[in-house]
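User: Predict the full complex structure for these chains.
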Amino acid sequence: MDAAKLRLAHVGKRFQSGSAAATVAVDDFTLDVAQGEFLVIVGPSGCGKTTVLNMLAGLERPSSGTVSLDGREIVGPGPARGVMFQDYALFPWHTVRGNVGFGLRHGPPGYGLSSESRARRVRDCIELVGLNGAEDKYPHQLSGGMRQRVALARLMANEPEVLLMDEPLAALDAQTRLILQDELLRIWGQDSPASVRRTVVFITHAIDEAVFLADRIAVMTTNPGRLKALIDVPLPRPRNDATRASAEFQALSQHIWSLIRDEAYRATVT
Amino acid sequence: MSAATPTAQRTMPPTGANHATGWRARIGRGVALPLALLALWQALGMASHNVRMPVPTRVVAAAIELVRSGDLPMALVQSLSRVFAGFAVAAAVAIPLGLAMGSVRSIERNVDPVVESFRPIAAIAILPLAILWLGTGTAAAVLIVAYAAFFPIVINTVAGAREISPTLLRAAATMGLPRVRIIRTVVVPAAMPSIGVGLRIAMGVAWTAIVAAELAVGAKAGGGGSGGIGQMMFIFYAYSIELNRIIVCMIAVGLVALVLDRLLRGGMRLLMPWAGP
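Assistant: Here is the predicted structure of the two-chain assembly.
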């Protein structure tokens, strides 16, 4: 029996630039992500966490090892694995409504759907992220927090099985971040039973964010990018501000910080 | 007029002093030098005692005469139709080619050297070939306009297609869109502002080309029925040395080109409300 939704098996990624020796971005990375699990990958900048996510998305191929979804090898991007990007990746020529409905209108997520049911799903997703009233605005008319809400609505509208999130909150200010962390958990369905939740792989360099969101945290180490530790986060759900204030939350954050502090420090001086 | 411009922008009522000096300041800024130059031109022209010397008053008189007789509007319409035809041919070839070059590396590698080695060859330099192949009529003029307008459009389209944010392409790919679909739904709209710039530059270039082409075709045909503003200028030069009328033609070309540019800009703003003012 194979319970893993996503599986990274001895995955390595080398980048060859010119005649110089290849850079090893990711080395012998092995990790299973269960159906409905919220997995957060945390690590210092340059540790290869984005490369891992891109391989899950099918945007990059591993140099060695295999990446698979439900036991089938991932060979390219596909609508079953939706991606949310740090810089929002909204289409500037589409309004909020056009962006949220982009995949439904142009891609496989909309195949076989009537135009009414597409429109309904777009409306529902805009409501889900609280952007009612902004449907006809263009991205350049929105704040960073609103743009990321649009990106989240677009992701949900395509109903992917797996959500891959590449530091989606990193460009936002601290307060907007906290609010969107709460929203993210609500939309993921932290109030619903685990069986109906989607599988999430979320990248961040913020430890408190990782602890707040995750079922499990994969700590990565840099140069080469390796899996250093896997940490369960037994904090009860639903999580809220009380979670952030709890002693257990603080202790977990401290523990993870102690794992990457030395490398994070080195990254600031080299 | 942009509909998005908020009307309540001026919260402070203009003070009396600002209001009084407003028109003077505007004239001082915008019109003073042109008026001074016109006056200087008039003065120098009158001082020369040469009846052929063009001066502003005689140019205005010639303009009225040419408009009344219908010669100038007729010539402009003829030139305009050639500009539009050549411009349309250029856009129809250059935009798809530019998109292909900007999105597919191997196409760009092959086509770019060809484009770049033709680019320095002025449109007027292909005139002998155009006349030999197509005669001295409209077809040759259209070919020359198309040749001239092709380069700015293709170069700007390539730049627009190449400068697309890679995450937009990735976002579309992760939604499962096939590559061909991505070109239509992402590459084309993302390149549109650049294509618009190329079209505006090309429109200006098309005008310089049409005047040159018609002047030269006029020289070859010695008048004839091919018409257009350039040939009208040639006739004024070759048969009667009407300098005032030639200057009228120059100004007419400039004004028509200005109007076309404003129309193009307005059309693009309507087409691309996201691109800002």
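The domain at 54-275 of chain B is CATH 1.10.3720.10 (MetI-like fold).
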